[in-house]
Design goal:
The chain has 140 residues and is mostly beta strands. Helices cover 6% and strands 44% of the residues. It contains 2 helices and 15 strands.
């Protein structure tokens, strides 16, 4: 899906280029906070250009925590460590428990937007890890 087709479907808006976290992404992403940063829970629309994905990462928590993704536009992938990748389309919901290594991003030929919800918890922290290798991503 090209940008001209995608943009009217991206109902929560593109936001600004996600430069603060660019080092943890392959490709360009955009962030549009929907609640004030630091609020609990925190909601943000994250948009990925075609081929963009984030590194493997884990939402650490001693209790509670994790993340919920609500796919709103475009098409993408979600994968947990050691499991096959799951295709994402508008309306899909992904509940990611705390302490589960995973990545998510757009398909090679489509933009993707999802609402990311940081689930409240105790002792929470995001641990960024290695990039998803091009060979593995390209095989999807």
């Amino acid at each position: 899906m090209d940008y001209m087709e995608f943009e009217p479907r991206n109902i929560f808006g593109l936001g600004k280029e996600n430069t603060a976290f660019a080092q943890y992404f392959t490709g360009k992403s955009y962030l549009n906070p929907l609640t004030p940063p630091g609020s609990v829970p925190y909601f943000a629309n994250v948009t990925f250009e075609p081929g963009c994905r984030n590194n493997w990462h884990t939402h650490r928590a001693e209790r509670g925590g994790g993340q919920i993704l609500l796919c709103t536009a475009g098409s993408g992938w979600y994968q947990e460590w050691g499991k096959p990748a799951r295709s994402l389309s508008p309306g899909d919901v992904v509940v990611i428990p705390a302490n589960v290594k995973h990545w998510h991003g757009a398909k090679k030929d489509s933009w993707l937007s999802h609402i990311a919800v940081e689930v409240p918890g105790e002792g929470t922290a995001n641990e960024w890890q290695e990039p998803v290798p091009d060979e593995e991503y390209g095989a999807l």
